[in-house]
Design goal:
four-stranded antiparallel sheet, Topoisomerase II, domain 5, rod-shaped, 41 strands, 829 residues
Amino acid sequence: MATNKPTKPIKPTKELGYIKLKEITEEMQESYLDYAMSVIISRALPDVRDGLKPVHRRILYAMLEEGLRHDAKFRKSASVIGGVLAKYHPHGDVAVYDALVRMAQDFSLRYPLIQGQGNFGSVDGDSAAAYRYTECRLSKIGEEILRDIEKDTVDFRPNYDETREEPIVLPSPLPQLLLNGSLGIAVGMATNIPPHNLTEICDALIYLIDHPDSTTEDLFQFIQGPDFPTGGIIYGKKDIITIYSQGKGGILMRGKTEVVEKPKGEQIIISEIPFQVQKSELVKQLARLVEEKRIEGIRNIQDLSDKEGIRITIDLKTGVSPQKTLNVLYKFTNLQKIFYLNMLALVDGIQPKILSLAEVLNLYLEHKKEVVRRRTDFDLRKAKEREHILEGLAIAQRNIDEVISLIKKSESRSDAQKKLEKRFKLTAIQANAILEMKLSSLAKLEREKIETELKETKEKIKILTSILKSVQKIKELIKKEIKETKEKYSDARKTKVITGKPGEILEEDLITKEETIILLTRDGYIKRVKPAVYKIQQRGGKGIIGMEIKEEDFITHFLLANTLDNLFFFTDSGKVFQTPVYEIPEGTRISKGRGLLNFLEISPQEKILNFISYNKKDSETKEEAEYLVMVTKNGIIKKTKLSAFENVRKSGLIAIRLEKDDQLKSARIIKQGEEIILVSKNGKAIRFKEKDIRNMGRTAAGVRGIKLGKGDEVIGMDIIKTQNSKLKAQNYLLVIMEKGYGKRTKLSEYRLQRRGGSGIKTARITAKTGSIVFIEVLTEEEKDLMAISQKGQVIRASINSISILSRVTSGVKIMKLEQGDKIVGAVCL
């Protein structure tokens, strides 16, 4: 049972020692903090001075101890791993080998620190062979990081079992943190630093030595940004400068691509990929897009990469846009990726801090100054020690006969040493050096050699002393060493930097611009198909099936549009709805299509009366004012500025106020100065100027466009573009009648009238021809006519095969129809 009595303190015993009572929450907090700091300092984060984590530092130092320099014989990786584990890093062998492997991979590090022999993995994500199969040694630049470590340039500390010492940090002649970057996840924090170009870093360091107050922006006259080992392209130089100033942010990367012409279509070649992207996974992503039909027009994908470099080829079908294909790849694959920079490193070996580029280089220079100072001090001590010995040897040379006599008369070495010290006032070190002097040094040349070396040593001491006393001389020495390193290891930049940003890839950027035909039935089924599926036939033929429809349903609208257009749908309630053409699913020639309710938020009671296509981008580039002009079956016409329809809501927007017995029949985009032609089903036409209609608001009803006879109604409207004056490109009016007849008539036969009149005759309507169902003003661009019947039959014929006839004629047979069928629409291609 629980008790509220306080726990009695446990008395100390000889076996247990003192036990201190403590709250478990307090103990957990302290223990977790100790663990977190251990991970941060001793495992996950790099030191800003040498850019290395403890495991990498220990591997490199252990390899140097084993004599595995860049020109030494390769040794089994297993031997290196065993040495590191035994001497310095008492952790798992897998972690140590993984760290060693990464330092040998030229696709992971910009400047590999280890030379590997054998299978060290690949850019495809293949893992390295087991360490018993691979061999390694230090690379030239890896050896450079350890240069002068024997000269007391850095501090050492006892290893884990205090049997030897290990360096706390490496001398590092260049900022390894920036050269090869770093990636690490600690407790509650992470670092992700990209690699950079050695030449650029060297130039920035030299400039920073002379201009210590430089900002990150100042340094970007030398450093362009990350330089990834896999190449690629990065974007937005201004944004990159901001990111490096703050020490964190996202940098947009893309693979390098090229488009080449091939006999069967264009080919995209990927020759470089973004950093840290597995090539095999990228190829799988490409294949998956094709399988899922999220991208079309790709014939074949091949990975032709070899030891010379990456080469992924994507063969496109004829007519497919390479840029649209690339947009899809950028959007849905790792061909485009964000590198999230987080320049977190340990300052003074203990404090994790997010640093700007300027701070990283300044902290490195402080480390470099300390290394140079300590190395110079070490060389000075050694030079003074040598000077001391040489001075003793010189005294001995000048008094060689007496020295020999004194040694011969001595009873022992120690006796001779004491006599030499006393006679010539030497130190024990000098006397001992004289006793170890070889007889060959008595030669004249050897005596001169000692005098010369003594003189040179005195001069060296003078130089080293002056360096230690002058901050400026230390700076000049650092600049000289950086320049030498630059000359030795300088190479060209791999990653290209684009100043501007590519911008957000919008949905329309992924769509190939091409003509398409939209079909809509009375019951609201809609689809789009490529015009190419309908082959050209002779005029007067039966045609082919264009859409599978239910018995009680029939096709009501037929429209030619572009995949990048928007569709305006007009309903019997006077509303307009909008959807992009590319959102209408593409179907086969005989497929049924999908319900319009999937794309528009219209009520089941609303009926689509008409729809038109409209390209917003094209409109934005035009200077002339544009209007949407609408006409109803009762001849009412209305003109409203197109800008009033810029933001059509999902739930629709009022476009026109309709009378109860009226319906919208046609809508067109018109510019100032153009003309309008209206045609009725019983063969009347009227042509008038756009300025005859005043501009009205969206909710207005409109004005009379044509005066209709009993039982007549407007079936169509088109625009006559007169800016180029003499109608050279628009000299015909095409008229199609419901029973398959049609004709072309010169526009010059239609005189200009005022709106609201009865018009003039445009065709002779008989029982054989049926009423007019379609009209269009022809330009030189139209080559073919496609007509569709109520039952879904489609014919495609050359427009030139349709006879040019006068206004009062009936026309010629265009399409042979079945009993009870009739033409409901047409388009000109």
